[in-house]
Amino acid sequence: MRVNKIIQEHYKGRKIIHIDMDCFFAAVEIKDKPELKNKPVAVAGSATERGVVTTCNYIARKFGVKSAMPSITAKKLCPNIIFLPVNIEKYKNISMKIQQIYKCYTKIIEPISLDEAYLDVTNSKYCNGNPEEMAYQMRKKILDDFEITASAGISSNKFLSKIASDWNKPNGQFSIKDKDIEQFVLTIPIRKVPGIGEKTEKILLSKGLKNCCDLQKIKEKELIGVLGKYGSNLYLLCRGIDSRQVESNKISKSFSVEDTYAKDLETLEECANEMKIIFDKLKNRLKISDDKDRPIKSCFIKVKYNDFKLVSSQKSYDKLHYDIFYDLLLKIYKTNAKPIRLLGAGIQFNNSETSQLNLDII
Ligand code: TTP
Ligand code: MG
Q1: Average pLDDT for residues 162-185, to the nearest whole number?
Q2: 116 is an active site residue
Q3: pTM of the entire structure?
């Protein structure tokens, strides 16, 4: 079936904007310290997080500095770099105010993170219904009110709007019209497709599949054979077809807590002690959250080693019970006993069940 025909059938006329602040944490900090505007700036973790770059401005990026890089490496690449501490509360506050700007244009807003959101403006009457003009106005208002630049992407689906918001970044916007989708998707690298993470990328690259053009040559059955159910999604996505709705008030799929340590955890005993603390936090935060009555599907833990390698393990279990988390920790520790800088624990909810949860907390 031709792509245009599918689009006509699925979502002709939809107008979706993806909006993403440029170097968000750094931009907020520089707004408060304008003297740093023309200098390389990075926002790096506090002493307890031992200096990892959360983000940096575009001047620092020219030197190769990027998110998740240890500050020591950033300093080597850019000796004049200025590090500023993270102030999450400040970013949350501005993020909430920015969302108020979106609300003037539509009620259908799906925030993805503090600096990123999808907006469905299909039925918005503003700007004569012109989504490009709406995106422009929102970006201008964000700049006028907060001195932060934002980039936006506009198309009839989430996947392509997100790709488009990156196209003219920073401080730009880009639209992908339905008539151009077929041609546009061909060059999109596989890693940019929603659902393709590090593992799937490796599998596909090993088969010589680098971009959507390569993927389009593969039959749906074959993709399903390699990737299971996701294969049929991918068959559509690589053709630029994505019928996902913009979900306002999206229900979270999971609930978790994590701690980063000033000193690496070395022994199993240390890890188990910290895991108990994290478990108690998880239990207590869940009890007072809006999610407290939701049925649990599985429990998981997350471990980040001192070389920043991240591993996780999960088990299907419908109750919050410390032993499950300890067993998962033991399993990971036995596989690899390297020093640990971060531990996390969480639960995934069973969104299909409507029954009330009997929280059996031990
Ligand atoms: P991003 O939108 O990924 O990055 P950014 O806004 O800094 O830069 P860009 O101009 O490319 O959009 O993330 C938003 C914020 O989230 C970012 O300012 C800092 C934080 N963050 C982290 O704390 N750790 C990370 O690894 C990343 C990628 C982001
Ligand atoms: Mg951003």
Answers
A1: 96
A2: yes
A3: 0.78
